[in-house]
Write a structure and sequence with these properties.
This protein folds into 2 domains: about 95-155, no CATH class; about 175-435, Rossmann fold, CATH 3.40.50. About 35% of the residues lie in helices and about 20% in strands. The chain has helices spanning about 1-30, 30-55, 120-125, 125-135, 205-215, 250-270, 310-325, 345-355, 365-370, 375-385, 415-420, 430-435, and strands at about 60-70, 75, 80, 85-95, 95-100, 100-105, 105-115, 140, 150-155, 175-180, 185-190, 195-200, 220-225, 240-245, 290-295, 330-335, 355-360, 395, 405-410. The strands form 4 sheets. Strands 11-10-19-18-17-12-16-15-13-14 form a 10-stranded mixed sheet. The longest helix is centred in the first third of the chain and has 27 residues, at about 1-30. The chain binds adenosine-5'-triphosphate. Pfam families: FtsK_SpoIIIE. GO terms for molecular function: ATP binding; DNA binding. This is S-DNA-T family DNA segregation ATPase FtsK/SpoIIIE. It comes from Sphaerisporangium siamense.
Length: about 450
């Protein structure tokens, strides 16, 4: 008897030591723990419980199968089936075929073969139920090819804590944050020239503009600001801005200059048989211009009829830049709390030209719909579910046609101000820009070492 007691105590001590070692490993180096022990246990658990989970989430289908039994009243997945003959056709709940889950940085992903009559939307609808059944942060559904869906599972929200802003190293490209997949969130103006950045107050819009300023400041580009909050947001970045407008009248004059600059560049391209400034000989290529607009709605609001003409001119100029700017190196980044059609037809047309969409936390569903357009309804739900405690989190419509939850790196104002000061010598003067004196100063390999904020 004492031997048995010793044996039991020995086993218990051994198990306790194993659990402590696993716990320590998990806390010491989560990634290696996850890729070995964590993932293996999860993969086994997911495969073993898949029938139950699929049934609970409404992803199974009733199918008739021949069923063989030697036991009357045999139990099948649907419950008790009375079997009079040994082989009988019975209705069973068939689960979708699941491949082996593969580990990812923040969880795992698995491919599932759709059952007859199922569409990827059925899995998107069940995504929240799947997340709760598996006890994970989120399940995202994509369909890389017909008949298959990939369920990408994130165990914990990777956007709760972010590292620092890394350098992108490419012209007009800034890594502004992290996607929920763990990949970088990249704003590349040469691929997506114009962006809408919407969100309620304190949702992180200005922080994203700060990230862009820090990322673009060391690059051979001109930055232009429209700060309709009277300059409180962008005035301190003045050293790195080639021009700044802080009210409606200044904005109109600056927009007229930008349109004139665009027409000048158009003439230059035509004269050299180029379709855009990037096809011009290196010695003639003008400096790209990134236009940052804060509080876009202010440009469209009318206090009375007297402002109608001014608003119409502003709207036309912005729209022309949005329509033609890409080829001539003029890019827009438009921020606002609401970018809705209630501001007039000009805004609707402008919105249609902006293929880059960023929707921070919003107060009303219309703003999410207006910003993200007719993207997957799950994206709109996700935008409305962004909590106030995580400023900087946004839904991003990406270049690959997908949408992602993402979070910008936190860049305090003083860091952006510092970047604007130390790269002030790279600021082209507005007079030189409008007369074309800076031509030939941009080559793609000409980016100084980027600021590591
Ligand atoms: N990515 C982020 N990570 C952590 N904190 C952030 C992030 N983005 C913003 N914040 C915090 O949220 C606060 C509000 O951000 P921000 O000023 O960018 O919001 P906003 O949408 O521009 O608000 P407003 O419209 O009132 O100017 C910031 O002071 C900052 O502390």
């Amino acid at each position: 008897m004492p031997d048995l007691l010793h044996l039991l105590l020995g086993i218990l001590a051994y198990l306790a030591a194993l659990l402590t070692a696993a716990w320590t490993w998990r806390h010491w180096h989560y990634r290696s723990y996850w890729l070995t022990i964590g993932y293996t246990l999860t993969a086994i658990g997911v495969r073993v419980t898949w029938r139950k989970v699929a049934l609970g989430c409404g992803l199974t289908k009733k199918q008739h199968r021949w069923w063989f039994t030697v036991v009357p009243r045999a139990v099948v997945s649907t419950g008790l089936v009375k079997v009079r003959r040994r082989v009988q056709r019975v209705a069973v709940d068939v689960k979708p075929w699941m491949w082996l889950p593969l580990p990812t940085r923040y969880g795992w992903r698995v491919t599932v073969r759709l059952l007859e009559g199922q569409v990827p939307g059925d899995y998107a609808d069940a995504a929240e139920r799947l997340a709760h059944s598996w006890g994970v942060h989120a399940v995202r559904v994509s369909s890389p090819r017909p008949g298959r869906v990939v369920l990408a599972v994130t165990i914990r929200d990777p956007l709760v804590r972010l590292d620092t802003l890394p350098a992108s190293g490419e012209l007009l490209t800034v890594i502004v944050g992290k996607l929920e997949t763990g990949g970088p969130w990249v704003i590349d103006f040469r691929t997506v020239p114009h962006w809408l950045n919407a969100g309620a107050t304190q949702s992180g819009k200005s922080n994203l503009a700060n990230v862009l300023i820090v990322g673009l400041a060391p690059q051979p580009v001109a930055l232009v600001g429209f700060d309709l909050k009277g300059g409180v947001e962008f005035a301190s970045y003045g050293p790195r801005l080639s021009a700044l407008a802080t009210d409606r009248a200044e904005s109109l004059a600056l927009l007229d200059d930008l349109v004139a600059m665009m027409l000048d560049r158009m003439g230059l391209c035509r004269a050299h048989g180029a379709r855009n400034i990037w096809q011009l000989p290196a010695g003639l290529r003008p400096v790209p211009v990134v236009v940052l607009v804060d509080e876009l709605a202010e440009l469209y609001l009318m206090a009375g009829k007297s402002e109608k003409d001014e608003v119409a001119r502003t709207s036309t100029a912005l729209l022309r830049i949005a329509q033609l700017g890409r080829a001539f190196g003029i890019y827009l980044f438009l921020c606002g709390q609401r970018i809705g059609s209630d501001l007039g037809p000009g805004v609707t047309a402008l919105r249609a030209q902006c293929s880059g969409r960023i929707c921070h936390r919003v107060n009303d569903p219309e703003t999410a719909t207006m910003t993200l357009g007719d993207l997957d309804p799950a994206a709109l739900l996700s935008a409305r579910a962004i909590p106030a405690e995580t400023p900087g989190v946004a839904i991003v419509a990406s270049q690959d046609g997908q949408w992602y939850r993402a979070r910008s790196f936190y860049v305090a104002e003083h860091i952006a101000e510092h970047a604007a000061r130390i790269y002030a010598h790279l600021t082209p003067s507005w007079a030189d820009l409008t007369t074309g004196a800076h031509r030939g100063e941009v080559t793609e390999t000409d980016i100084p070492v980027l600021l590591d904020a």
